[in-house]
Amino acid sequence: MLSTRRTLAGVLLALLVAVALVPASASAVAAAGEGCQLVEAGVVNGQMTYKTVCPGDESEGPGEPGDGGSGSGGTPACDLSAVENVADFPFCVGTTACAVNNPSHLDPAEWPEETRPSPTAIYTWRWCETAAGTVDYVWTWYEPEVEGPSLTELAMQAFGALATPGFSVQFNPPGRAVVGVPTWFWAGTGNGGALTGSSAAGVVAIAEPSHLEVDPGDGSGTRTCPWSTSKSDACSATYDRASVRDGAYTARARLVYDVRFENNGAPLDLPGLPTALESPWATASVPVAEVQAVVTRSP
Length: 299
Fold this sequence. Notes:
This protein is mostly beta strands and 299 residues long. Helix content is 9%, strand content 36%. The chain has 3 helices and 18 strands. The longest helix has 11 residues, at 10-20.
């Protein structure tokens, strides 16, 4: 049973709710108006629902606007004034004027999820009035029309607008590393802070510095290092052998950011959005020398 605690737009809608829960009789079906009729639309939440079908709108879903909703030149094919003050979203189904409450006045916890046609459908109050004046009202599922890109698409546009800064792989000792002595690495860049990328409708991607990935080039593999864009020992590697044969090792590094999203200043968390941003790899030639000590003894 639908909760009696819910109120719809004043006393009129409260009365209509009570009427809507009464199954339509055969006489009501027959009184759908000239050229139109009420037909069964299926059982929803234990109650038989009905829709008004008029000539020319047989392809329309119950309570959903479609191609027949407007006449030529953008003029509505029905008189929307009959429903504009009843609910929030008026639309035409052929020559029938309909409207729904969006958002629904019914708590989502009370929606009959087992009959939900899609994840975006809402269970709400629908009022329809034909050109002949016949009224059809019922609780039913409504699929809101989506105009323009979705929030996920806008978020991906914002992510695509993120641009990592150019940088160079810096190391110390400068010019030449030494076997057995830790070599420091850092990213030489003038932009070591957060990055932002924006899309339409106020969706913003924000990339916060996370860490560096550094490969010394000696075959030891890539390591994760703390974020460092200035000379420090936060990220170091120790070479075990000199680069005599190749002249130098090719070290590489990249910047890694944590990514979050905001929609008009509010956090936006949607499944499937990227959580990290990586820069292209930058490289540097690192010559590595082996220093040998010569010990001499005095006679």
